[in-house]
Write a structure and sequence with these properties.
With about 140 residues, this protein is α/β, with parallel strands linked by helices. The chain has five helices and four strands. It has a four-stranded parallel β-sheet, sandwiched between helices.
């Protein structure tokens, strides 16, 4: 049912690629990708985000940040965002996608996963833990 999943943040270099790789590892039969509302198009993952993820054992291959488009919204079954304001950004771009946009940390506290960009390694580690909890919850929902 939800075979094409898109993970969205702002720059598509920290949170969304990390969550993309987490979900890909747990759901290999699904097509999972990521994009940004204000993407740093073509950039690889942020070095701090990648280092934290790889220290935790997550494989983070080369990534190319890309901009969210209406076409991407139409091509996916489920769009997972980091913050409520991202949900609004997605639905401004593609109003008909509203029904398939959910918070990645839906049902968790806090439900928004704040951007760690340009913050300390400790903040990146905390963000990684939040992403891991949120992705685990979605994997459980999607594999029932």
């Amino acid at each position: 049912m939800f075979d094409r999943i898109l993970v969205v943040c702002v720059g598509n270099i920290c949170r969304s690629p990390t969550a993309e790789f987490m979900l890909k590892a747990a759901l290999p039969s699904k097509h999972i990708s990521s994009a940004g509302l204000g993407a740093l198009v073509g950039h690889d993952m942020n070095t701090q985000a990648k280092a934290v993820a790889e220290r935790a054992g997550l494989n983070c291959p080369l990534h190319h940040a890309r901009q969210l488009t209406r076409e991407l919204c139409h091509e996916t079954d489920l769009i997972l965002v980091m913050e409520n304001r991202h949900r609004e950004g997605v639905t401004q771009l593609c109003p008909e996608a509203r029904g398939k946009v959910f918070l990645l940390a839906q049902g968790l506290v806090p439900s928004d996963i704040a951007d760690p960009y340009r913050k300390s390694d400790a903040v990146f580690a905390q963000t990684y833990e939040q992403l891991q909890q949120a992705c685990t919850a979605w994997v459980q929902r999607l594999t029932r």
